[in-house]
Design a protein that fits this description.
The protein contains ten helices and no strands. It is mainly α.
């Protein structure tokens, strides 16, 4: 709120989420915090994911005493059903990645297919060119490599000669392009 400065804080970024000017952002942020404080201590927001979703230790102990086991994961805030859906989706994505890799799908193969689709030389995807076609193709490549093959932004950045931050931005852009055009299947089909 302006009384302390810490270099690790992303003050400008945060305040822009709450207002167009720093003053407006601080006012809206203060209001947001006050609303949360006024709600008091909420048992659904205390402890790990399972504790939060069940409403605290007492309801969890009561269910365990009754012999009822509840699936939870401290990384996920939500009900047991929601937690199970999220974990099932994650398992399905892992299975798809494993299947693709077992079938021989790798970065080189996707790079070749993306280059062919966009009718560009594959080297234009790895040399940091800024031409519109190369950037669009690179964004699709980043999306597929990260989301479908499970490569990290750092791994991919090294191979494409760009920064991990650029990879992350391209993944988001690539997701939009892939979903708009519906071409994902053609790139990852073995």
């Amino acid at each position: 709120m302006g009384s302390l400065e810490h270099e690790w804080q992303a003050k400008e970024y945060l305040l822009k989420l709450f207002g167009k000017t720093e003053r407006q952002g601080r006012g809206q942020y203060a209001s947001f915090i006050a609303t949360g404080v006024n709600q008091g201590r909420r048992p659904d927001l205390v402890g790990g994911g399972l504790l939060r979703s069940i409403g605290g230790w007492s309801p969890l102990k009561a269910r365990r005493f009754q012999g009822i086991r509840i699936k939870g994961d401290e990384r996920i805030l939500g009900s047991e059903d929601f937690t199970e859906r999220v974990l099932k989706g994650a398992d399905e994505e892992l299975e798809k990645r494993t299947r693709l890799r077992k079938q021989g799908m790798d970065l080189e193969k996707i790079l070749e297919r993306v280059a062919n689709h966009y009718k560009i030389d594959g080297s234009s995807l790895t040399d940091g060119r800024k031409e519109r076609g190369a950037v669009k193709a690179r964004s699709v490549l980043c999306y597929l490599a990260v989301k479908k093959l499970g490569l990290t932004a750092t791994e991919l950045a090294l191979k494409l000669n760009i920064t991990p931050s650029a990879v992350s931005k391209l993944v988001v852009r690539g997701q939009s392009v892939v979903h708009e055009t519906g071409v994902e299947e053609s790139f990852t089909k073995c």
